[in-house]
Amino acid sequence: MARDVDCLGVVADFGADYWDAFRITGLGGVRPSSWAAASLGAVEVAHRAFGIVVWGGLLGFDLAPRDTDGALVGWQVTADTQDQFFLDADGSRMAGRMAFTRDGDDLVWTTMLRHHSASGPRVWAVLSPVHRAIAPRSLMMARRALAREA
User: The whole model's pTM is what?
Assistant: First the structure.
């Protein structure tokens, strides 16, 4: 997996102050929504309090309750097609978008942030190395889970 630069249109549409992207190959035909559920579900299983402490607490996102229709792990589903699945969250420090997009048989997970306050970039500077370590591992765990289901 490597940082992907083929997602600039998605980033430009969001107006991101920060973005990164990770690509994983294989498993053609799996919908981006399935990749998102498997990837983010792996994070939640591994780190039960992740959404509350990191997303809701440190990053300041206003998340929906976990069982809310139209949301996944508290993030609002804002696009769900054969080739794209977007999750959005907003809060006091920043707005965030996670875009899961299909590119052929590959899946690209792009994370974007748009800062609302001076504390946003400072908090993200501390948390971004953790994100960049967790995201690729989450995609690999998702690939294994999705391959078992196929």
Answer: 0.90
